[in-house]
Amino acid sequence: MPSDSKPTFRSASIIGTGSYVPEKVLTNADLEKIVETSDEWILSRTGIRERRVAGLDEPTSDLAAKAARAAMENAGVTAEEIDLIICATVTPDMFFPSTACFVQSKIGAVNAVCFDLSAACSGFLFGVETARQFIATGAYNTVLVIGADKLSSIVDWSDRNTCVLFGDGAGAAILQHREGSRGILASRMGSNGKLADILYIPGGGSACPVTADNAAEKPATIRMNGRETYKHAVTAMVDAAEKVMVDAGVTSSEITCFIPHQANLRIIEAIGSRLDVAMERFHINLDRYGNTSAAAVAIALDEAAREGRFQRGDKILMVVFGGGLTWASSVVEW
Description:
Number of domains: 2
CATH topology of the largest domain: Peroxisomal Thiolase, Chain A, domain 1
Order of helices and strands: EEHHEHEHEHEEEEEHEHHHEE
Strand content: 15-25%
CATH architecture of the largest domain: 3-Layer(aba) Sandwich
Largest sheet: 5 strands, mixed
Number of helices: 9
Number of strands: 13
Mean pLDDT: 96
């Protein structure tokens, strides 16, 4: 006789975090020497003062591996214990093998299944939710999720509207089921492919390969409609944050720390205003790193955790937005 009981799923907790940014600092003053811009213009419109830039010999997998090692140390997990590696990136070392496979080799995670995930700036939270599903069903026990991007490799350094925004870096988290902890309480993800053309890279793929004929047009670099991106980012992240709190059964007053995508201070301020949450409750580091795409919320999460912005049992809310268009939010009991 078939059973009427519902399947039991395990909770998934973030048990450790890590991050890495390259040593080289590129300030707004440095950018003044490259394009027609100024420190005042960049700072007043974005909130960014400086960003980190990786060396030519430092691919995305190097950034990711360093963040992964930091997360493993923080979680007290060995490389051999990792069952699955998910690397969220839009700047893979190459089309294939996956960047996650290169990370596996570099950290010695010989037992891990590996794949990359592409959701632009939303990638890390897409990866965390994917990890939660594998842990919930019991398919895997220890999952390493990495958000890593080397955006300096896909920026048009002659485009003053975009080159001032981006930086390089990586953040990582180890997820496991932890007895007595509810872990990830709720997540929301969304996409709208009809708005793909406001934030994208037109060339480099099968639709528009880079050739000798079009190389001068720099088709494999970031294109962005800033006004439209701002509008949709604010709307999508506010909606995602409000809905995920309802899903989690919490109110904004119960959230100890809000960790938003680190793209633009004006966007974060608009989100805070619409959610009626004071800016002091947001963790913000974009002034030092700029927008590091999938790495941004992961780096901010690690930084906030290490600074003691929240403690075991506190609730945090992460919310992101990226090209696709994509967006995601998550409420986590730490």
